[in-house]
Each structure stands twice: as structure tokens, then as C-alpha cells.
């Protein structure tokens, strides 16, 4: 499948030439003439790489870069900057902030294609994004936890899980079940917000957030409240009025299943407490099971010191 590239360039002639060059090389190309349109395009569709003019008017290329790095869905998306300047400090600042590469105008077509191709190959090799939510999957989650442990950060891991999702999925079918998953992903992205918080999708109805310890419970409160507000709309009117799903089990017995809720296990990760990402995830899973035993949407904090 051809890689999808977004070209962001305000000069129409340059933008057209870049698109023609990339189209001829076999890429699927979209374009945006300014930063606002670029950010909107990336909210609506997944891309494999962005070719971004650093000197955009209004919302600059650097501003676009920062905004993309704040969104969990585009945090790791490779960005190749186009610039008419060769200021070393500017280039270093953007590279340190996560830019993949720089190309100086006027560019050499073969060099540009080589750099774009290398960036796409690196992205394809490391990409582990859940296709349903667009969030990083298990390999990236593990890398993020390990990186924070290596830096001796004091952080919290929130393990988020939907209660009675199987019953909902069995009753309404996987299409509506997928809507519940994407709804929760959007809630997590909205609540997490800032760029220092990481949101990942373990799989199925399981997610994680990495955040500062002192904000973990406030995040959990926001997630549970928003989920409870939103989930009712995904039930049929009759089930909403009844307050539950009625369905026959395998033995033909009529059973009632309350509305889906969300449970969150919170583990505080001070420096030195855990020796790896697996131990952190195991502790969070244990605490999440405690939260699931409580009625309604809830969260539980691991108060253990070791």
C-alpha cells in the first residue's frame, strides 16, 4: 500500500511541483496551503509523513510541528521540514523537538525523494498504531514507559478498561462496539490534552495514559464523567428507557446487563520502584481489577510503596 504524504507549502507553484514529484514516485499525496488547513487535514485522515514548509505565514511550520506533537495520534508522525534558510540553531531546535529531517530550498529532487523514502521506511518499521483508534499500540507504549523509567521520571500510569463491553458488543454487533472504542479514545485524547501526557491503545477496550502523579486522579475523574455522559447515546431508546440490555444467554435464560462503565487502575511510578515496563503494567492491571469490583465508573489508586 502506497504511503500517504501531506505537503504543506504556501507557494502554489512549489506545492504543485512537490506534489507532482511525489505522485510520480508512487506516493498518495494531499496538500495544504497553510498551517490551519494542515492541522485540520491530519485530524481527518491518517498520514505516513508530512513535508512541511518552516516559513508558513500565520501559523508557522514550527507552530504546526508543536501542535502535532501535542496530539497523541500524530505525536510520532515523521515531519520533513522545507526551509529557505540554513540557520543552525533553528534546525537544531526543531530536530530536538522531533523533526525527522530538513531539506533546504532550492531542493534537489533526488535528494528529497531519498530523504522522504528513508523517513517513510523508518516510520513503517516502528509504527504500531491501532487502526481503530489511531493511537500508539503496545510496542510504542512499552518504549514510552521504558524511556520514562530510564530518565527517572516520577509519573503515573492509568490503565483504562470498559466494563461489560462484551455484552454490549454481543448485543449490538461489532460496528457499534467499535463506536464505543473510538468514543473512549476521543475522550482520552481530549482529557489528556497536553504534550507531556501519553495516550496509548493496548488493544480491544484497554487503554493507558501516562501523566504526572499529581494530576492522575483529576484525569480519571474527567474520563469517567465524560464516558458516563456519552455512553447512553449508543444504546437503543428502549434500552435507555429500561436502563439495561435484555438478552438471552446460551441456555435461553433472559438476563439484564447494566450500561457499560469504565474502570481505571492508577499506579504511581516514582524513580526506582519498578525495574521495567512489564512490572508497571502488571501492577496497573492488578489495581484496575480492584476498580472493576466497585459499582459504576470508578478508579482505584495503588497506594503500595513497592
Characterization of this structure:
With 306 residues, the chain is of the alpha/beta class. It has two domains: 4-128, Rossmann fold (3-Layer(aba) Sandwich), CATH 3.40.50.2300; 138-301, Alpha-Beta Plaits (2-Layer Sandwich), CATH 3.30.70.270. The chain contains eleven helices and twelve strands. The chain has helices spanning 12-24, 35-44, 61-70, 88-96, 109-126, 138-150, 165-172, 174-192, 216-231, 237-242, 277-292, and strands spanning 4-8, 28-32, 49-53, 79-83, 101-104, 155-163, 198-203, 206-212, 244-248, 254-258, 261-269, 298-302. It has a five-stranded parallel sheet, with helices on both faces. The protein has a five-stranded mixed sheet with strand order 7-8-6-11-12, with helices on both faces. The protein has a two-stranded antiparallel sheet with strand order 9-10. Helix 4 (88-96) links the parallel strand 4 (79-83) and strand 5. Helix 2 (35-44) runs parallel beside helix 3 and helix 7 (165-172) crosses helix 8 (174-192). The longest helix is centred in the middle third of the chain and has 19 residues, at 174-192. The chain starts with a strand and ends with a strand. The model has no long low-confidence stretch (mean pLDDT 89).
SSE topology sketch:
Blueprint: E1 4-8, H1 12-24, E2 28-32, H2 35-44, E3 49-53, H3 61-70, E4 79-83, H4 88-96, E5 101-104, H5 109-126, H6 138-150, E6 155-163, H7 165-172, H8 174-192, E7 198-203, E8 206-212, H9 216-231, H10 237-242, E9 244-248, E10 254-258, E11 261-269, H11 277-292, E12 298-302
Parallel strand pairs: 1-2, 1-3, 3-4, 4-5, 11-12
Antiparallel strand pairs: 6-8, 6-11, 7-8, 9-10
Helix pairs in contact: 2-3, 7-8, 8-9
